[in-house]
Specification:
Elements (H helix, E strand, L loop, with lengths): L6 H8 L3 H8 L15 H13 L6 H8 L4 E6 L5 H16 L3 E6 L4 H13 L4 E4 L6 H9 L4 E4 L10 E4 L1 H14 L5 E6 L4 H14 L5 E4 L4 H14 L4 E4 L2 H13 L9 E5 L14 E3 L2 H20 L10 E4 L2 E2 L1
Parallel strand pairs: 1-2, 1-3, 3-4, 4-5, 5-11, 6-7, 6-8, 8-9, 9-10
Antiparallel strand pairs: 10-12
Helix pairs in contact: 1-2, 1-3, 3-5, 5-12, 8-9, 10-11
């Protein structure tokens, strides 16, 4: 059986005292917003990184004995293979460990039934809260979560008609940046390539696109599980319409469109200009590089964690945490 990693092991590896590791791993933010212990950010990050590399797991059993709590948070994301969610997961992991919580990560692949199953699985493990990306079509599971006694925060998308606490990006403003970028570079006949799934991040981007370019502006939809095949069909139509500028509403459709164009001998950034949402290493291979909308991933993680900690604290104090349903809206930027 593998040896359990302790704070003594982390202290030895990081070259600091056991007490300092204990301070960092059990640090708390008080009602005044200040940390209980003063540790330099550099030292704190070093200790947390060593803990992550050594796969340190705080003893939830010991905490339950002391406080009757698990200090476990369920994090349900869409696709952990996507760099967008991978970065958010890493940031959340660091923040949760810093505040003494153990994260349980799940990926739904945009399957609503899978979303419901992982909520049930995490609930059976007595998680104290959730940070979730609801899959398309998972309304009944959002309703169940909202009716439960478990605090949760939604990220990346809002969920009408349900009023739930959310941390979002201003997608309409971000699309305005993307379209303006193509127009300033000379594109006059612009199309959008989006996902077929009806989630708020996509529909808000599509709405903004049409508001800028008119209701007849072409939008092509790719299935979440058929991106490559649908991209081939979309590119044939894009070329038939003599499109000279394309916005891709996410990085995975972006890469699929690039591949399909190159298979047809199209010179990216010369014959057709591209601007995308979210980063991909592929974008830097072209001259000039493909611009992209950079969403504030670290801020999304930090704001959602802070929001969840607030809701958990309200529940512990006997307050009605269900009444808090604010949206935190963040700005993206063009890179």
């Amino acid at each position: 059986m593998a040896k359990s990693i302790t704070i003594k092991d982390i202290a030895r590896e990081a070259g600091v005292s056991i007490a300092l590791v204990s301070f960092v791993m059990n640090n708390r933010v008080g009602a005044d917003g200040k940390q209980k212990y003063r540790v330099s950010p550099t030292t704190r990050d070093k200790i947390l990184e060593v803990a992550r590399q050594m796969h340190y797991q705080p003893s939830s059993a010991a905490r339950m004995l002391r406080k009757g709590r698990t200090h476990v948070v369920g994090v349900i994301l869409s696709d952990l293979s996507n760099l967008f969610y991978g970065v958010i997961a890493k940031e959340l992991e660091m923040i949760l460990y810093q505040h003494g919580y153990t994260p349980l990560f799940f990926s739904t692949e945009e399957d609503p039934e899978r979303f419901g199953r992982v909520i049930q699985l995490a609930s059976e493990r007595d998680v104290e809260g959730f940070i979730v990306v609801p899959a398309a079509g998972s309304a009944k599971y959002v309703e169940q979560l909202q009716a439960s006694e478990t605090p949760f925060v939604v990220i990346d998308r809002y969920y009408p008609p349900h009023s739930v606490p959310s941390v979002l990006v201003d997608n309409e403003d971000a699309m305005r940046l993307a379209v303006r970028n193509l127009q300033e570079r000379g594109a006059r006949n612009i199309a959008l390539v989006s996902y077929a799934m009806r989630i708020s991040s996509m529909t808000d981007r599509e709405k903004s696109f049409r508001e800028q370019l008119g209701e007849q502006a072409p939008i092509y939809f790719l299935g979440f599980n058929s991106v490559e095949e649908d991209a081939e069909k979309a590119v044939d139509q894009i070329l038939a319409l003599h499109i000279d500028g394309v916005v891709t509403a996410s990085n995975i459709p972006g890469v699929a469109i690039i591949k399909a164009l190159m298979r047809r001998g199209i010179r990216i950034q010369q014959d057709i200009l591209l601007t995308s949402f979210d980063f991909s290493n592929t974008y830097s291979l072209f001259n000039p590089p493909i611009p992209y909308i950079q969403q504030p991933l670290k801020q999304i993680a930090a704001e959602s964690a802070a929001y969840l900690f607030k809701l958990i604290a309200m529940k512990e104090q006997g307050q009605d945490f269900h009444a808090v349903t604010d949206h935190i809206v963040l700005k993206a930027r063009l890179v």
